Amino acid sequence: MKVYFVYILLCSNEGFYTGLTSQLSKRLQLHRDGLISDFTKKNLPISLVYFEMHTDFKSALLREKQIRGWSRAKKKALSQGEFKLLHRLAECQNHTHYKYKP
Fold first, then answer.
1. Rg (CA), the chain
2. Which of 24, 34, 55, 96 makes an SS bond possible with 41, Cβ 3.0 to 4.6 Å?
3. CA-CA distance, 16 to 39, in Å (whole number)?
């Protein structure tokens, strides 16, 4: 069974890079060597701060795209395991947001 990794790197500029691979250690070395991704290449050193495994490529790809669309605060909360904060950050902050109150 093939395994896919969705991962988050923290770069020297405090920015996050989100990626997808089937060979996590090899991909990390490529990032560290500056051989892939202009973003990580320009912001070395990098460190792996989060990863999750998927056995289905499509679900891994969807998850990667989901995380890429998140704010820096949400990526930080995920990487630090702050799941309550993650849920709070996911709530709509727009003043027009309607919340049902029975």
1. 16
2. 34
3. 9
Q: Which of 73, 86, 87 is nearest to 15 (CA)?
A: 73
Tokens read off for 40: 């990580």
pLDDT tens readout for residues 52-85? 999 999 999 999 999 999 999 999 999 999 988 8
Enumerate long-range contacts of 46-49, CB under 8 Å, 24 or more apart. 46/9, 46/10, 46/11, 46/12, 46/17, 47/9, 47/10, 48/7, 48/8, 48/9, 48/24, 49/8, 49/9, 49/10, 49/16, 49/79, 49/80
Q: Where are the alpha helices (DSSP H) in the chain?
A: 24-32, 38-42, 57-68, 72-79, 83-90
What is the rounded CA–CA span in Å between residue 4 and residue 41? Answer: 23
Residue reference for tokens 């990626």: 19
